[in-house]
Inverse folding.
């Protein structure tokens, strides 16, 4: 059964798109990330134009993030004040990123830039996460306790000015690195169609030293508004949001996320990080291979939306 995507200008198998959405929703629920870093490459692999894949993929991120953020708010593991500061930086970054997106599209280099950026980020983040989680698993297997941080131990981030007190997170931290992190994630959201959770969560834990129990919920809170803003501006500026594709992905993603949460609750933290690291690294490697392997068709001609 096929369905026509008006903005992408091609027909696709609806069951394949439903499967993609459900699979990414499942993984999002299991790992606690938005899933944009997975759905956008998958859509590109399925020959959806990168311009449409980036702008439309953000819709599913919004849907899954809302569900997750509500759950964390009810559990008291969402820092609204911290999330708001991240959001301010994120909206500014998204505005800048959309301008870069439009500029690259006019130059005709957008597809290559998106692919290269995905390969660089996913390969780096995946390798780092996999390395850290494997070390944690080895320590657990040997019954070795992780090295405890000394009381009062600070890094350069904690010496910056303009400090704010975030009561829910129980930290006293400068607003500068929080705004900078939000800005960077906003740029990535608008250019790559990702929520940015796969970068934001490790950065909040290891760089800003924010307690793990509030990191995921606070990250999802920021992702909701930045991706929603990005989607609306992309639709108005670049006309690249395919509502038919977005609806199918969101419906399947919400259903898949419910089952992913149940599976994720049965795994330990280091096991989840190892699996996520492997997944991120695998997607990065797959994109890298696609960039260097000789395609079957060296040239394609598009007439009236049909490629020959």
């Amino acid at each position: 059964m096929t369905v026509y995507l008006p903005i992408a200008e091609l027909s696709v198998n609806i069951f394949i798109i439903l499967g993609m959405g459900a699979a990414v929703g499942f993984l999002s629920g299991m790992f606690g990330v938005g899933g944009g870093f997975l759905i956008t490459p998958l859509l590109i692999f399925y020959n959806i134009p990168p311009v449409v894949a980036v702008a439309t993929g953000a819709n599913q991120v919004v849907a899954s993030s809302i569900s997750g953020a509500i759950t964390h708010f009810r559990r008291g593991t969402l820092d609204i004040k911290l999330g708001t500061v991240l959001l301010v930086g994120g909206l500014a970054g998204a505005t800048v990123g959309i301008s870069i997106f439009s500029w690259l599209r006019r130059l005709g280099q957008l597809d290559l830039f998106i692919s290269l950026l995905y390969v660089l980020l996913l390969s780096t983040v995946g390798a780092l996460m996999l390395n850290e989680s494997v070390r944690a698993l080895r320590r657990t297997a040997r019954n070795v306790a992780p090295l405890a941080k000394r009381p009062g131990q600070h890094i350069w981030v904690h010496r910056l000015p303009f400090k704010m007190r975030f009561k829910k997170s129980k930290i006293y931290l400068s607003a500068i690195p929080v705004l900078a992190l939000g800005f960077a994630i906003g740029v990535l959201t608008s250019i790559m169609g990702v929520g940015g959770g796969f970068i934001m969560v490790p950065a909040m834990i290891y760089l800003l030293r924010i307690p793990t129990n509030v990191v995921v919920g606070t990250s999802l809170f920021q992702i909701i508004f930045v991706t929603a803003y990005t989607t609306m501006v992309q639709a108005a500026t670049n006309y690249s949001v395919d509502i038919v594709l977005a609806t199918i992905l969101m419906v399947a993603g919400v259903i898949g996320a419910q089952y992913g949460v149940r599976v994720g609750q049965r795994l330990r933290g280091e096991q989840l990080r190892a699996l996520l690291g492997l997944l991120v690294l695998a997607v990065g490697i797959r994109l890298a291979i696609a960039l260097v392997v000789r395609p079957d068709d060296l040239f394609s001609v598009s007439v009236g939306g049909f490629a020959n």
